Write the structure tokens for this entry.
Amino acid sequence: MSATHINSYYAATANDPTRYPKLEGTIKADVCVVGGGFSGVSTALSLAERGYAVALVEARRIGWGASGRNGGQMIAGISGEHRIESQLGADGRRLLADIRYLGHDIIERRVETHQIRCDLKHGWGEVAARPRHMDLLRAYVDERRAEGDGDPLELVEPEAMEQVIGSNAYHGAYVDRRSGHLHPLNLCLGEARAAAGLGVRIFEESPVVSVTGGASPVVVTEEGRVEASSVVLAGYLDPSFQTGRLNGLLFPTGSYIVASEPLAEDMAREIIPGDLAIADSNVVLDYFRLSADRRLLFGGRCNYSNRDPADIRETLRPRMVEVFPQLKDVALDFAWGGKIDIVLTRVPAIGRREPNVYYMQGYCGHGVNATHIAGEIVADAISGTMERLDLFEKIRHIRLPVGQFLGNQMLALGMLYYRLRDLL
Ligand SMILES: Cc1cc2nc3c(=O)[nH]c(=O)nc-3n(C[C@H](O)[C@H](O)[C@H](O)COP(=O)(O)OP(=O)(O)OC[C@H]3O[C@@H](n4cnc5c(N)ncnc54)[C@H](O)[C@@H]3O)c2cc1C
């Protein structure tokens, strides 16, 4: 297994070279967290802040997976909100209002407390890819204002779009001033360092091969084991962990990003004047933002069949130039991809596989905020406060018990329908 971060803009600008040891021999902990992405690191840190003895076991390196590769967009709420409302009614609405910015709050507090250098900036916008999408954005803003939670939101009418973006491709927007963007790998590494500082024992290059639950759970790696009172399966790990309630639940799907060469200051100001992170309103969406050194990070075009494109640059460049024709000659210095963990209901799956084996996964491309929310909910549950975990466990998920390959083909077919609908 490769223990090096993949070649990306983030790996090239990572600011913490710490390597953690391999797990060897038997150790004991109150909680063993499996997976060193945001789900795992965030949960471990939340538990350590409450005084638990925590071991975190990562197969490769901290931030190796989606958490060290994503678009860095810190977006309000979680995916599947309408499904939560329709299944849980008033309890669901209260839950959503309660957690909408919880991940943001946690991230901001940690960045401040632990002095994590991750280029955190505020301002995020959703742009209408079709004129009719503006009605949906207006309805969303109206709904949030009716709930008394609309203060961070601003509607941007089509004629005022030059305030948001130097592109004619969109038909209005809304901006959320509480959301924003950051360097995800540096956040993840910074949180891991903070967790280690609070006593979390972190192990890299230690793939977990089995987890036994029951009264005394044991997490086994090739060369070691952790005996713990509780285990957290933090994020989508690999198919062998998708048993019981997780069977047929999740289908990893490719998403890709290119990073341009650093842009001149006036060009950067021209394309995204307010330095917002931006996502479009399509189901199969494009998302982009400027990095701290003024590169355009342009991502999108999920590949639901789970097959990587032969050439990521050539796949994304035409779309980037369609949005920003002024960038047709810029060099693309980096190109990379990762897996988005899609669940069919779109609601993140947070719960227990057994009484003391917790899981959290399925953020559907909204994981920066949602992983931190999930980490807090699971840390609450381990500390005895079950209310929010209970609500997530009540969600009726759709499962496709057909195996990963067939499931991805079915998902790709379903998404083709949405892609065609986006184009109409
Ligand atoms: C290209 C891309 C762009 C995205 N853009 C955004 C965005 O802009 N905004 C947003 O909110 N979300 C975005 N997302 C989604 C977000 O990155 C994820 O939802 C989030 O990072 C999931 O974190 P995680 O910790 O659950 O999973 P991961 O970060 O994937 O971590 C799982 C970890 O588990 C480890 N692991 C696997 N198997 C084992 C094992 N057997 N033993 C031990 N460890 C194991 C892996 O090595 C990995 O480090 C994007 C995702 C991708 C791929």
Notes: The chain has a mean pLDDT of 93. The longest strand covers residues 332-343. Residues 123 and 180 are 4 Å apart (CA to CA). The chain is about 35% helix and 25% strand.
